[in-house]
Amino acid sequence: LIATSRDTGEIELGLWPYERLNIVVNEGDMEKYIEVQLESSAKFRWLLGTHRDVHKEIVAGVTKKADGIFLLAQLHMNSLEAVHRVTDLHRALDKLPSTLDATYDEAMSWIRNKDRKLAYRVISWLVRAIRPMTICDLQCALVVEGGMTATDTDDLHDEASLTSICVGLCYNGSHPYLFLSLLIPFV
Q: Which range is least confidently modeled, 40-49, 52-61, 134-143?
């Protein structure tokens, strides 16, 4: 069994009797990761096609703020992708949080009030599920209400909505399963 963790008090105490291997992120690896994110996003491709100078600024800014934490870099890239103008992108880069806790707080503030209840339900199902959930599992879980005897496909939420309302806190990668980007501290 392999467990990965950051050096935090409670978690570190729980893992103390076990062998440890400290992994340090190479800055070049982080930069490459950010470059791939830039190239794989249609929005970033458009932006970088018209403003090449912004490319280096994004790579340098996100690399610095992520401080070797790929998850933090991913969340920062998600937040930058939501920006619509280059002027706003410069501001957003300057305001990127430097810690996971601050990034969690910011991500939760991004969830619009009308979507907050659904976003919490999505995250709650993913955190409390006894096995990894597929998008279909999650769609069905969210539609079921007390006293129901049948469901209608018209009541299902679409996949893009379920992942986008969680503003990067969950994702559906190349696997058929949904994943939380991180262990949400408030659930």
A: 40-49
